[in-house]
Amino acid sequence: MVDNLSIARNLAAAGVEQKQAEAQAEAIAQAVEQRHGETASKADVAALKWITGINLTLTLGLLGAVIAILVLLPG
Fold first, then answer.
1. Residues 15-26, mean pLDDT to the nearest whole number
2. What is the pLDDT of residue 62?
């Protein structure tokens, strides 16, 4: 996600008029979003980590069950 306010503040600090700085910041943000599409939010990343953790836990549990069955099978 592009921080429009930060870009506008940096432009204004460099001497660009406030209205123009805001317009340029918006244009930059739109260009970045068009180029890269929607970016993941912190919530998206947290959800992905949670899902990945669940999948890993289930996979390891299933692997453990298969190993236990193989060990317990007669000869």
1. 85
2. 86
pTM of the model: 0.46
DSSP string of the chain, one letter each residue:
---HHHHHHHHHHTT--HHHHHHHHHHHHHHHHHHH-SPPPHHHHHHHHHHHHHHHHHHHHHHHHHHHHHHHS--
**How many degrees, rounded to 5, is the angle at CA 38 between CA 33 and CA 44?**
145
Distance separating the N- and C-terminal Cα atoms of the chain: 59
Residue with tokens 């999948």: 55
Q: Six-digit token pair at 29?
A: 């943000």
CB-based contact 4:25 (threshold 8 Å): yes
CA separation for the pair 72, 53 (Å, rounded): 28
Which two tokens mark 13? Answer: 């600090």
